[in-house]
Amino acid sequence: MKELLESARRGKIRAIARLITQVENSPAAAEQAVQALYPHTGKAHIVGITGSPGAGKSTVVNALVKMLRQQEARVGIVAVDPSSPFTGGALLGDRVRMRDLSGDPGIFIRSMASRGSLGGLAQATASVVKVLDAAGYDFILVETVGAGQAEVDIANAAHTTVVVEAPGMGDEIQSIKAGILEIADILVVNKVDRPGADRTVRSLKMMLHLGPVGGTRRSGRISANNVQENSGGWDIPVIETIATEGKGMAELAATLGRHMAHLRQSGEWLQRERDRSWREIEMLLQRRFMHQFQAQVPLEMREGLLTAVAERAVDPYTAVNQLLAKSDENM
Amino acid sequence: MKELLESARRGKIRAIARLITQVENSPAAAEQAVQALYPHTGKAHIVGITGSPGAGKSTVVNALVKMLRQQEARVGIVAVDPSSPFTGGALLGDRVRMRDLSGDPGIFIRSMASRGSLGGLAQATASVVKVLDAAGYDFILVETVGAGQAEVDIANAAHTTVVVEAPGMGDEIQSIKAGILEIADILVVNKVDRPGADRTVRSLKMMLHLGPVGGTRRSGRISANNVQENSGGWDIPVIETIATEGKGMAELAATLGRHMAHLRQSGEWLQRERDRSWREIEMLLQRRFMHQFQAQVPLEMREGLLTAVAERAVDPYTAVNQLLAKSDENM
């Protein structure tokens, strides 16, 4: 393990891949890896990329990667597919991607699918991002499918969140946009050669200025003492792209740099690091608590209470009280 | 509170609405309500409805509700919008819906948006469903937007999960489908009057038979001892609808009944109740653990460690070990 960690840190592709597999499969390996690599992290620019299905997120990511590579940056890509918790649904996209970007040692791609556990994916993604950070990638792009809580969690783990939209996605999607816009630092309207692009750009700009803090990021970040803090000072730019032709990618790359400079100058960089650290610590604490609990309360008691709750003989709150009493007793 | 609970249980609309507001806003009220109402729950058929944006989910829900009302069933609708964690993004859809279904005392509609807390929405939804169950609604339709972890959580809280698709939703959506199909008990292809409908129906049927347990639900349900269990014995039907004209709704309603009968006969009903109970208990336990922890570890220590982690002076695992040691000390 020590050798593997050292090779990964020196950027050896195969070592990184092997280490990530270990980190994904074993919490003990994740702990060991993060403890060893953590002092070497904090250098990468972590960019979350999300948006409506069909907006061309993957194409935007590929085009952006090519642009960043032209600028000599090393890029790690983590493609997260929370919609497929049971089987490896992320694999198909990975294979398509590989064909397009493979062969370049300055690019590392990894697909991840949820395993159905509460918070498991967010935790694993955080560890994988740390491995890539320590391995010296300048940018780590975390791409997610869908528009749910997972995106919000991932946005909270990124320095910069890019939301990708496209013209003419239908009315129902408006409501999703409204939600997802709240996590955006940068908006991309892709496929601007399509009919209706002007209208989409206009309506997005309008939505951005309708919010409670008109035009600045409405931050819902929560600090350790649960106080909501506003970031402010950053006007969310709307960037028009045609990713299949690489159009708009230079502007997107430059805007990423500009956002990074803003984060550092405003002091928000440290605030985002603190928020992310808190979320990670919270997840680790919860896992530890559940392990302790399972060790302290016999399986038969848990199973018995579960049946009683399912049959309406005991309510869930009373069951929790009984389980906690047992847990305290056996400490 | 006692009077309010009694009125809600007798199905008084205004009491139900007021009780739900209290349950959403205060964990203490949720505990009191669930403890009091729990013995009266377990009668409703809880149906989760999800699918790709633009497939016409809301229209399907509205048409299904009208069909169920014709059959004299009382219907509760919970519209969950996990994409909007910070502001009340669910409200727009709610207002549109109200216009269509309002005035019928056999229908209760409630919109919910996430508040940005880990698992907070799933927890609140579970409590609201219990209130409606105890209030005597025969069906509780839980409708979600998007295709993320929230959908999976909600599917795990339903007896029957309906996934709504539509023809011609683009290629990227295929990968989402693959993921979301894994949680479906019933598939609806809406807008079958559109071009390409035949192809969509055919490809969905093909995907259903490509899975590892070909044609039966690939259940990822996790029991209290973390053993994955398969359900099986249910062939996922593909139902063709034109919701705007009410077409296919009688078949959908009948299929819901058939799935319910299957659950009861196969014994899976109790299994799903147990799974759901376990998830709920797990969420409650984690909340309790975090409360205890916050009471035991001084805020200054938490804040200090957070800064140290953000600045890379301490890694997250070491921070957790220090926090737990402090917590044990102060117990």
Structure description:
The structure is a homodimer of 331-residue chains. With 331 residues, chain A is α/β, with parallel strands linked by helices. The first copy, chain A, folds into two domains: 2-285, 3-Layer(aba) Sandwich (Rossmann fold); 297-329. Chain A is built from 13 helices and seven strands. The first copy, chain A, has helices spanning 2-9, 13-25, 27-37, 57-70, 91-101, 120-134, 149-156, 172-181, 197-210, 249-266, 268-296, 299-310, 316-329; strands at 45-51, 75-81, 107-113, 139-144, 160-165, 186-189, 238-240. The first copy, chain A, has a seven-stranded parallel beta sheet, sandwiched between helices. In chain A, helix 1 (2-9) crosses helix 2 and helix 2 packs antiparallel against helix 6. At the A-B interface, helix 3, helix 7, helix 8, helix 11 and helix 12 of A face helix 3, helix 7, helix 8, helix 11 and helix 12 of B.
Which characteristics define this entry?
globular; seven-stranded parallel β-sheet; alpha/beta; 331 residues; Rossmann fold; homodimer
Overall shape of chain A: it is globular
Number of helices of chain A: 13
Structural class of chain A: alpha/beta
CATH topology of the largest domain in chain A: Rossmann fold
Radius of gyration of chain A: 22 Å
Give the termini distance of chain A in whole angstroms: 33 Å
* Oligomeric grouping of the chains: homodimer
Which CATH class of the largest domain in chain A?
Alpha Beta
Helical coverage of chain A, percent range:
40-55%
**Mean of the pLDDT scores of chain A?**
81
Largest sheet features of chain A:
7 strands, parallel
The percentage of residues in β strands of chain A lies in 5-15%
Order of helices and strands of chain A: HHHEHEHEHEHEHEHEHHHH
Unreliable residue stretches of chain A: 84-92, 212-230
Give the largest interface pair and sizes: A-B, 89 and 92 residues
CATH architecture call of the largest domain in chain A:
3-Layer(aba) Sandwich
Beta-strand segment tally of chain A: 7
**CATH homologous superfamily caption of the largest domain in chain A:** P-loop containing nucleotide triphosphate hydrolases
